[in-house]
Structure formats: structure tokens, C-alpha cells
Write a structure and sequence with these properties.
Elements: E1 7-9, H1 15-26, E2 31-34, E3 48-49, E4 52-55, E5 63-71, H2 76-79, H3 82-93, E6 99-106, E7 113-122, H4 125-134, H5 136-140, E8 143-153, E9 170-176, H6 190-193, E10 196-203, E11 210-218, H7 222-230, E12 241-247
Parallel strand pairs: 1-2
Antiparallel strand pairs: 2-4, 3-4, 5-7, 5-8, 6-7, 6-12, 8-10, 9-11, 9-12, 10-11
Length: 253
């Protein structure tokens, strides 16, 4: 099993332990987990021992979610807290295999954080809500509000599979609409497609109704973003409420 990540999870019989175990299995990872009540453990496909189970499975119930958390006005001191930063990273380490994209949005100086983006696969809507509620930054008061949607990953890949120009800035664009859907990937202009890091349709958590589009893109600057917004081939003009954020890749540094 060289090169394969094996997840070791305690308390997998309920709560976040069960959610993480299910999500890791859904991503195709081997899992070794322990829990007090075997009857509560997720379905296992192979292997069992006296203290837990080991298995590999692909679950059809996995759903991708996009969460954008906007910082509170007084979050700067909390953002500078290195202990809290390590707690945040340690928490996110538990979801590393499930991440599609992550990273902070930034002020005009591209240094001051204004929010956080996380796109990942989880077993259920309840799991997504728990992911937000238990995140250390959220518990400490870093965020003023959260926006969460189901996410249809139209690129079918993660941000780590993107190869772009190191010197060019990144932007996150979120467009809201309860009527419009994103332009299909196959009809996007090739010059835009090669610059897309993230691209997908948003829908509401509970009912799955259309809610908009989200994309992360690498372009020369804000003027290029404005030109993209006006390009009919990109289809962003149909979204009445559009916000643009400076953005960067997230993760341990």
C-alpha cells in the first residue's frame, strides 16, 4: 500500500468521527477506525479486528459543498494568533483528502484576509453544517457570516491539478441567481478554460434549487476580471448579484 494514505480515526461510531470516516471512504481512502459500539460503525467492505474496522468503499451519498466564510470586522487580531492558526490547519488536515479547493480571500493589499473558501466532499448537508460549526476559526469568532451551497464540480478536478502562471493573481467570483446556471464547460472559450482553477454550479443546501455559480480564475489583474464579466461567452452576465474577491491558494505554509 505504498503511497496510499490510510486514515486512522477514533470515535468513528458517531458525530464528526463517523462523518470523517464516511467522507474518507467516499474519497476512496483506506480507513482504520475505532468506536465503542460496532453496530454504529459505517458499512465496511473488508477486514475487521477487535477494536475497529478497515475497509475501502465508494459511497454514492457523497456531496460536494462550497463554503465561503466572511471575516468579522475585528478579526485581524484573531487572524494573527498563531495558536489559532495551527488549530485551524490541524482541523483542516482531517479533511485534506476531501478538499477540492481552499484558501483565503484578501483585501486590496493581497495580504489582509477578508474571508475563507472551502470546497470539499462530505456525506450530507448535516456534515457540511458541522464542518462549519466546529471549525476553530468559527468557534473563536473570526467570521461574521457563512454562505454554504451544494457545489457541482464542472471541471471534475481540484485546485491542486491546476497549472498556471506563478506571477499572475487569483480571483474568486461568486454569482447568485435562482434561475440561471453556469455555461457548460464544453462551450467555454479555450482561453478561459485554461485559466480556470475552480468552476461549478451552486444550489441550495436543503432543496437543491439553483443558486448561482462559483469560479476561481487566474488572470493578469482586475481589469481582466472586468473584461471576463462582460464576455458573453463566459455567461456571467445572467447573474444579477456578483461578487469578486482577491484570492490565493490555502493550506499549510
Amino acid at each position: 500500500m505504498a503511497g496510499t494514505r490510510v486514515w486512522c480515526i477514533t470515535g468513528a461510531g458517531r458525530g464528526m468521527g463517523a462523518d470523517i470516516a464516511q467522507a474518507a471512504l467516499a474519497a476512496g481512502n483506506p480507513v482504520v477506525a475505532t468506536g465503542r459500539n460496532p453496530a454504529q460503525w459505517p458499512t465496511r467492505s473488508s477486514g475487521q479486528c477487535s477494536r475497529g474496522w478497515a475497509g475501502r468503499s465508494r459511497l454514492s451519498s457523497r456531496v460536494d459543498f462550497l463554503v465561503y466564510s466572511r471575516d468579522a470586522a475585528d478579526a485581524a487580531a484573531l487572524r494573527a494568533d498563531q495558536k489559532l492558526l495551527e488549530e485551524h490547519w490541524s482541523y483542516m488536515d482531517g479533511f485534506a483528502a476531501l478538499m477540492i479547493a481552499r484558501g483565503p480571500t484578501l483585501d486590496t493589499d493581497r495580504e489582509t484576509a477578508t474571508g475563507s473558501l472551502h470546497v470539499l466532499g462530505l456525506p450530507s448537508v448535516d456534515s457540511a453544517r458541522k464542518f462549519v460549526a466546529l471549525e476553530p476559526n468559527n468557534r473563536a469568532g473570526v467570521y461574521a457570516e457563512h454562505f454554504a451551497w451544494r457545489f457541482e464540480n464542472l471541471l471534475g478536478r481540484s485546485m491542486w491539478e491546476f497549472s498556471g502562471q506563478p506571477a499572475e493573481p487569483l480571483f474568486l467570483i461568486i454569482g447568485r441567481s435562482d434561475l440561471a446556471r453556469p455555461v457548460p464547460v464544453e462551450t467555454l472559450p479555450s482561453e478561459l478554460l485554461e485559466r480556470l482553477i475552480l468552476y461549478g454550479a451552486l444550489s441550495t443546501l436543503d432543496t437543491g434549487e439553483p443558486a448561482g455559480v462559483a469560479l476561481a480564475v487566474q488572470v493578469a489583474g482586475r481589469e481582466a476580471v472586468d473584461a471576463l464579466m462582460k464576455d458573453e461567452r463566459a455567461g456571467l452576465g445572467v447573474f444579477s448579484d456578483v461578487e469578486v474577491h482577491n484570492w490565493e491558494f490555502g493550506g499549510r505554509r
